[in-house]
Please model this.
Amino acid sequence: AIKGGGGALTREKILATMASKFVCICDASKEVSQLGRFPLAVEVVPFARSLVVARLTDMGGVPVLRESFTTDNGHQILDVRGLNFANPEMLERELNAIPGVVENGVFAMRRADIVVAGTPEG
Model:
């Protein structure tokens, strides 16, 4: 998977799950000491967006619709700040248990086997 924040997270997770070895390619800006520095992408079924927004808000999140964007699967992306990443695996499960959530950008349950991070020097 190439991590770019573009909204292909559902297909990335499917491929990562199918792969015998998950290689994640990203640029150096993706490396952080604490998860949550960037908004978390949550792919949602448009019909359920208001329900998902309410549940994310109840969890302490601040969801914002990614305007004029539709995923390859025909869904919408909510970019969410303010969630608690103390237990990433639990957060990933809790988010996916919300009716209308297709997938989220936490890759805690299928972590990369190899990470290749580009730098400004190459």
In short: The helical segments are 9-18, 49-58, 88-96. The mean pLDDT is 88.
